[in-house]
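Hi X.,

You mentioned you wanted examples for the new student's onboarding notes, showing what a folding record looks like when two proteins sit in one file. Here is a clean example. The first protein comes first, with its sequence line followed by its structure tokens.
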Amino acid sequence: MSDKLDKIDLHILKILQDNSKITNLDLSKRIGLSPAPTLERVKKLEQNDVINSYHAQVTPEAIGLMVKTFVLVSLDWRKNQARESFLSQVETIDEITECYIITGEADFLIKIVCKDIPTYERLLFKTLQQIDEIERLKTLMTLSTVKDSKRLPYDYDGEE
């Protein structure tokens, strides 16, 4: 699809990644089109799964979620259906907000967001370590966030 995106589509994507609450009228002014064709372009981007959702990004600390960790997970591949079983259990744990299959020293990288250290400790010992398919866990505790960009790294201006 990216080969079919023109400069106006790319400009729309850049603006919406920075502020998806912008009105269609304001968006149309910023890209230099009237509101109707602007809305048509946005709808086309949605229909083609270039834009797949709009959502509120909530500040975790504002709702009492003070701990963010990344956990490297290595599975015991001798267990039957280890991957499928692990992934189905991950889906049921709300505190796991992201899960990636990775290469390197582990099989998965999971992001966990929770209230505090005691909550994380309970999750670690009473939930994660009870998953039979897990052979090893390695926690990487975050201290602070220095960058959290939501805009994908792409040349939106079309200049190389």
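Then the second protein repeats the pattern, sequence line and then tokens:
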Amino acid sequence: MRHRIAGNRMSMPEPRRRSARRNLMAGLIRYDRIQTTEARARAIRGEVEKLISVAVKGREDARKHLAVVVSDADQATKVLEFARKGRFSLKHTVASNEDRAKLQKAPLTANGRKFQEDKLKARRAELLAIIPNEDDAEKALRAAYDAMVIELHARRLILSALPDELVVKKLFDELAPRYLGRPGGYTRITKLGRRKGDAAEIAQIALV
């Protein structure tokens, strides 16, 4: 889908210019391509490429950290997917109502306790289906949580520059895997001619 995002022909205060740049950058990442003035396309190109590089490096560093413990790529992917579902350990048990009271938590009914125990049992089975050895599974899970922290740091860096959760999600879920191993050159600018009225050069900037 092609989206045209025209530049404002009049000068504007810096906060509005910054907001306009962010909108252009978000549009490019969201739709893969936008049309704007050539000057604006060139102005955002470096910033967008820098954000993609941060996402790629964050994803790469996280995967490398996990690979030290889980060398099998398929297992690593599955363990990371498991870790994203929430904190877990094979040592987890359902606390007694006495212990829950000490933590100022409501007591569990018999049905509530069975539900919690079944939930832990299912998660335990899911993890051990990926890595059968319990010690190895625990180490892999800890490494996966560490990898998530590494990636989270990269996400926060990007959010500070481009506060749009959906755009950041696409950067990590789609673009980082797409550009893994590629050293830059994520965008291409194509001139489209001049705009009627002020004859400004119009261009398309697209993700390659």
